[in-house]
């Protein structure tokens, strides 16, 4: 079942965008994704589970949460 997952990801630079694109490109079930550096927003479409997408993007070391859930963060950025 195809669905859309929207995440807020702390991405200060193009290198961060590249890291997010790399992990999403390898993730099974992802049909397409869009990374918006200005909005700090990642939209993923495909046969994916929201929690799995969140965990995958969190592996980049970037602060990641579901869009609209500012109080909830699963991982803080490692500087």
From TrEMBL:
Residue ranges annotated for the HMA domain, each copy included: 2-65
A molecular function (GO) term: metal ion binding
Protein name: Copper transport protein ATX1
Top-level taxon: Eukaryota
PROSITE patterns referenced in this protein's UniProt entry, alphabetically: HMA_2
Keywords of the record: Metal-binding
Coiled coil (residue ranges): none
């Amino acid at each position: 079942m195809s669905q859309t997952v929207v995440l807020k990801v702390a991405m200060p630079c193009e290198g961060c965008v590249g890291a997010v694109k790399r992990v999403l490109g390898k993730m099974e079930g992802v049909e397409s994704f869009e990374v918006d550096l200005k909005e700090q927003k990642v939209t993923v479409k495909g046969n994916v589970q929201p929690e799995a997408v969140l965990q995958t993007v969190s592996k980049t070391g970037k602060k990641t949460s579901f869009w609209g859930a500012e109080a909830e963060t699963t991982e803080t950025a490692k500087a």
